[in-house]
């Protein structure tokens, strides 16, 4: 899959090292692949699953929606199944299933003569205590970044994803973090802005997901594929490893979501 189509999946900035092996693909000649993206959260539904197809690298950014698919999500813990309804081109919505911490979920998609499956477990909530700011000054430039503050649980591997909004506008970058070197500590994660600048009076909102390791790896590999390392460009574009079977791109994730908002003064 090409970089541009990866950005459609979700753009990312800030890289953490991952030792997962990824597969090189011929970006110009790669045949279309199914792209499935599904999220279940602890917020009220409906939840959605997006199904499209990838396009070759030199094509325009037009990602054909996949219509007429059979999409099911099963709450394995509660032993209930929700058959999703297509509500827009390539978009399928739940009607009955609820996102509950600790529950396991299974996704099944039948589309274009193939079947794709995935499972996920919603991690425990790690309380998002507060949102503050940190101002950096270097080479005559002053940059302000939001800082989520939270207590990481001791003795349990935890993985986090952050999104940020400035004056209600979603920013392009996503941030992933693991507690491998900070287990059990009180964490203040500075979210470095790549191309946006926070000014006095701006309202900043940060969204925090508690995610599984394989979802962390997926987004981390996207970051690496875009060449956004801590010290400069990293490896050549690669294919992120999906948790969806059947040679599909994308991911299926159940995760709790929390938000904090603050005005920078």
- Gap between N and C termini: 42 Å
Shape: globular
User: Could you tell me the strand content as a percent range?
Assistant: 35-45%
* Main sheet attributes: strand count, strand direction, barrel closure: 5 strands, mixed
Would you tell me the structural class of the helices and strands? mainly beta
Architecture overview:
This protein has 265 residues and is mainly beta. The protein has 2 helices and 16 strands. It has helices at 3-9, 213-225, and strands spanning 34-41, 48-53, 70-75, 80-83, 85-88, 91-93, 104-111, 114-121, 128-138, 141-151, 159-166, 169-178, 186-188, 203-211, 249-255, 257-263. A hairpin with a 6-residue loop joins β1 and β2 (48-53). Mean pLDDT is 84; it is low at 1-29 and 228-237.
Describe the SSE topology.
Blueprint: H1 3-9, E1 34-41, E2 48-53, E3 70-75, E4 80-83, E5 85-88, E6 91-93, E7 104-111, E8 114-121, E9 128-138, E10 141-151, E11 159-166, E12 169-178, E13 186-188, E14 203-211, H2 213-225, E15 249-255, E16 257-263
Parallel strand pairs: 1-15
Antiparallel strand pairs: 1-2, 2-6, 3-4, 3-7, 5-6, 7-8, 9-10, 10-13, 11-12, 11-14, 14-16
Summarize this structure briefly:
By secondary structure, the protein is mainly beta. It has helices at 3-9, 213-225, and strands at 34-41, 48-53, 70-75, 80-83, 85-88, 91-93, 104-111, 114-121, 128-138, 141-151, 159-166, 169-178, 186-188, 203-211, 249-255, 257-263.
